[in-house]
């Protein structure tokens, strides 16, 4: 019977594994979980194939930095010992590089920004026109109800 969810387990197991390598007792005290439970979770996690292991962002970055200076042979050997594929390392490296890209690279071009501003101005103008039309319809509806109320009262008397 599973008392804890998978993400809950992974959160604390990640603290026990590389690169953090926190002491089991410290994590157990912080999480209010028994030491034996955390040790069992850690052992289960280490037995999983690498595809099923949860590598935290810090662990991925550590792996990329560790293998950056290695040649292909030693990098492949390192990957075998950790149970991951070299293509995973390459994907992690690309992800890290992409996340560290300059903010200017992520911005739209000046031409695209100008087109966006024109489109926004056009949409605001259309919204204002529709608001005015809606207000006019509401005013006409209220006026027609008042006129109907006035003429209906006169017929009753």
Query: Are there runs of 5+ residues with pLDDT below 50, and where?
Result: none
Annotation field: number of helices:
8
Mean pLDDT: 82
**Percent helix:** over 70%
Task: Write a concise keyword list for the protein shown above.
mainly alpha, single chain, 8 helices, elongated, 157 residues, 0% strand
Sum this structure up briefly:
The chain is mainly alpha-helical and 157 residues long.
Describe the protein.
This protein is mostly helical and 157 residues long. The chain has eight helices and no strands. Helix 1 packs across helix 3 and helix 4 packs across helix 6. It starts with 5 loop residues before the first helix and ends with a helix.
Question: How are the elements arranged and paired?
Answer:
Layout: H1 6-16, H2 24-31, H3 35-47, H4 57-68, H5 72-82, H6 86-99, H7 103-106, H8 110-156
Helix pairs in contact: 1-3, 4-6
